[in-house]
Amino acid sequence: MAHFTLSTLARALGALAVSAAAAFAPSPAAAQDPKKADGPILIGHYGSLTGSEATFGQNTSRGIRIAVKEINDAGGIGGRKVELKEYDTQGKTQEAGSAVTRLLTSDKVSALLGEVASSLSITGGKLAQKYSVPMITPSSTNPQVTRIGNMVFRVCFLDDFQGYAMAKFAYDDLKAKKVAILFDQAQTYSKGLAEFFSKSFRELGGKISAEQAFTGGDQDFSAQLTTIRETNPDAIYVPGYYTDAGNIALQVRKLGITAPLLGGDGWDSPKLAEIGGGAIEGSFYTNHYSHQDPRGEVQEFVRKYTETYGQVPDALAALGYDSARVLFAAMKASPTLEGKDLAAAIAATKDFQGVAGTITIDKNRNARKPAVIVEMKGGVPTYRATVQPK
């Protein structure tokens, strides 16, 4: 027979009370399910709101904010408003890691939107996977991004297709037989596009006359361009970001090279024409949409965006808008907002009518969709052609 003192008895009764409370407490999943909670549903966006690629993050944010306003004006999700938490990456990997960590651990967002730069999305995606919080990148095109795991999605095309699309346009439409490549060796995005373009152009029967590298932010490209000029290419492929592309265009023309420049969606910014001026005229780049597309979804978005921000939306704005709308549709369809449930609902997205095309998420969590080719005319990206997936 055990011997109890009063203090022993008190401790025993306290432990029993704790056990009983635990037995009747809701499960962690139920307690944390944001769909059943009060207050706003928090979503996070991390993007380059400042820095050399600031228009990427700013315009993505503007597209997301239009989508947030629309969903809230329509009554929210399950009667709850959506609240956007947003942090600046400054276009830097370390800042992206800090921003995403804060969104996941301090703000405890239900989902993430971002980044534009593939290298930063890889950083954020690894954290999203670790914490089991779904992430949709609006516009990171490198294939490695969604290979991180089942929590990472995209609503844009991939670089292997984007590289093929420009190679096909250059070979078939521009009748280019020799193309030189000048790429940013510090960017996952640029290196990947250079590789995919080169492979596709060779397969079509073309020749790569020279491959030269630079590091983003360089100011002098004369050595690389002099080497390229000696090969007399029909076109020069520059798969970088708009700041560098504009500066390269100026130096290309200064050296007397008249071949058109070709680029990827990293060129898409109102700043391209400001930086490149007349030197960028007659150049081409692959993009996700054209504001000149007559589809109702496109023209309605262009109207709302122009009324709100006083400028025509670029593809980054359109993709930010699409990524948020795909997320909200999945939130409505998901039984809870827990990571696995919400990720499954995003993965089930099919034939979603987006501004930047119809979106179906495939088994690898990528969107299969066409690309458009735009030409710089009078400082304006002007629709030239559409290239369908193989």
Taking the sheet with the most strands, its summary is: 7 strands, mixed
Number of helices: 13
The CATH C-level class name of the largest domain: Alpha Beta
CATH homology superfamily of the largest domain: Response regulator
Q: What order do the strands of the largest sheet run in, or round the barrel if closed?
A: 7-6-8-9-10-13-14
Q: What is the fold-level CATH name, i.e. the topology of the largest domain? A: Rossmann fold
Radius of gyration, whole Å = 25 Å
- Roughly how much helix do the residues carry, as a percent range? 40-55%
Globally, the shape reads elongated
Low-confidence stretches at least 5 residues in length (pLDDT < 50)? Answer: 1-32
Second CATH tier, the architecture of the largest domain = 3-Layer(aba) Sandwich
* SSE arrangement, N to C: HHEHEHEHEEHEHEHEHEHEHHHEEEE
Q: Which quaternary structure do these chains form?
A: single chain
β-strand percent reads 15-25%
Number of spatially distinct domains = 2
* First-residue to last-residue Cα separation: 81 Å
> How would you classify the helix and strand content by structural class?
alpha/beta
Number of strands: 14
Mean pLDDT: 91
